[in-house]
Amino acid sequence: MATVHPLTTTATGSDVRVRFCPSPTGLPHVGMVRTALYNWAYARHNGGKLIFRIEDTDAARDSEESFLQLVDALTWMKIDWDEGVEVGGPHAPYRQSERHDIYRGVIDKLLATGALYESYSTAEEIDARNEAAGRAKQLGYDNFDRDLTDEQKAAFRAEGRQPALRLRVPDEDLTYVDLIRGEVTFPAGSFPDFVVVRPNGVPLYTFVNPVDDALMGITHVLRGEDLMPSTARQLALYDALIQAGVTTFVPRFAHMPLVLGETGNKKLSKRDPQADLFLHRERGFIHEGLLNYLALLGWSIAPDRDVFSLDEFIKAFDIVDVNPNPARFDQKKAESINGDHLRMLGEKDFAERMLPYLAQAGVFGGGEPTHEQIVLAFRAAPLVQERMQLLGEAPGMLGFLFTDEIEYQADAMKGLPANAAEVLAACVDALEPVAEFTPDAVKSALSAKLVDELGLKPRVAYGPPRVALSGRRVSPPLFESMELLGKDETLRRLRALVDHLATTGS
Predict the structure, then answer these.
(1) Burial class (CB in 10 A: 0-12, 13-18, 19+), 396
(2) Which of 74, 156, 225, 417 is disulfide-compatible with 79, CB 3.0–4.6 A?
């Protein structure tokens, strides 16, 4: 029967230490942010700590711009961290590129215990030996250099060869209990001794990542299932790190499900628009809505409930409850949940979050909004809060309130009844005598004229004035919109559509 390492951590509560350690390449991906979210929630649920570390040893791909975007993404999403870049901590520095001296010290300790050894074999030599032994080339390295004598090493060096350093993998099964997937065993001999330091002296990611975890006391490694194959090597390395006195325990591992695109069974690609966190922000997601949806990509708070607050999420979340099966990104569901969170905002909060989207769309004329425009936006906000799923919908819904030039949309014009001009003229007749231009007074006057006197159905009665005011088939509540525009502007727009219809003959 397979046995789990006896020194596997039993840390709970405030002793829990998790980490988020992305590489600063490209734009923040929603799958990566889901990883940060689960680590953050697990730390907060247990009263533990989240460490934010940067894996920036790939000089060709890493960039400071991407790093700043990562910080921006986590800050916007309100995912805070207890130690790491930007905030410091007892295990600084938190960038791999600044920790080379630390790695050198660990390498020396592992060389002293015999856990690492010099390997001079070239790829061509390894292939040739495998072929001669009748072994498949895919099996790779054959542990040939494990027991080289000092004389053999000296001979290789005399040829000008520089050695890589390989980890001496234990000749036994390696087993761990995945917090999401249960017991996993890597049979003895399923992978060879592997390179941890290149011949040029630069350590590989497969070395520095677990070394940093060990030195920073990480108790729980929560990461994507695509990294699961590397766990075997990490377990082997941890065994060596414990024997060398670098750490005293092996962390617990949990491998979260992949996030798939909306169609097919492929992992959500970085090139997929749904993967771009900032695109979701630009379209008008709020952090509460997007975090809620990302939390559902592998976890649920209850079988019949999808919408919850961040406090409820933290209280309920446990990594052992995450489903191991792949999660599919559903754009419509994400937007629906965001709409629910928009409606949970206070009116003032909603209006304040909406303003930048109106400004960016040029609704205020391209410059800073005037006091009057801000007041109008705040008065209009409650009319659309119940109807919106994304803040980016605000310019389309409310833009007509801030301009004198109304563009009549084609579908709105097509949907007008044949007697639209007569209906609009009747609206003018009904509203001209109204002194107190309130929604109730406007509704009463229009209803009496259009419904009671002319016998029109509400859909026929109120469609034309809606198009006259907004240019759209769908708009905020009609009578409230008229109040916001005021009596004079409302009458002007009603007459303008009458003139337009007469000019175009439609």
Answers:
(1) middle
(2) 74
